[in-house]
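The methods section describes the discrete structure representation at length, but only in general terms. The central task, working out the structure tokens from the amino acid sequence alone, is never made concrete. Nothing conveys this as quickly as seeing an actual entry. For illustration, here is how one protein appears when written out as sequence plus structure tokens:
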Amino acid sequence: MSIWCSDEPLILASQSRARRMLLANAGLACEALPADIDERAVQAEAGLVAPYEIALHLANAKAAAVSACRPNSYVVGADQTLALGERMFNKPAGRQHAMQQLLALGGRTHALHSAIAVVRNGEVLFSHVAVAWMTMRALSEAEIAAYLDAAGDAVTSSVGAYQSEGLGVHLFDRIDGDHFTILGLPLLPLLAYFREAKLLRI
């Protein structure tokens, strides 16, 4: 049973199965409606360089785009950036690109910035950015190749070429951060906002 108590629907402006699963497991039935925006173009137009600012701007843009076509709905937008120092990473274009990313990340600590925004009728009601620190173990090309063989096409669906809730966990020595942040949806701050706004039964 959903604990969502508003008469207006909850919409997730994302096609991420992990994000939708997190909401569903928390008792929040929602409709997934991915935002039709060119993320790289929106990022370039904003002229932002800080990873957390980019993640927050894109989360807001996604929620706003869906809100424009779904009046009165509460729309949750989310975005995640991966940064190794000042270097930003995007989803790998293929196996060779994934290999290059993992060679760069191996033996080092990178940051995952996960942003969320709640928009209703074009107004940003809530936004938040959380960070997790991911330390990969030193990886040889042979080890990376074995991982890529095992993980298959899934490596191209996530920035950094890994999903830590799956086979990607084998790549890491240490993870410092909230599990929900790592999956791309800082759930606890989002639920706290919904409770404050009287949108949950619990």
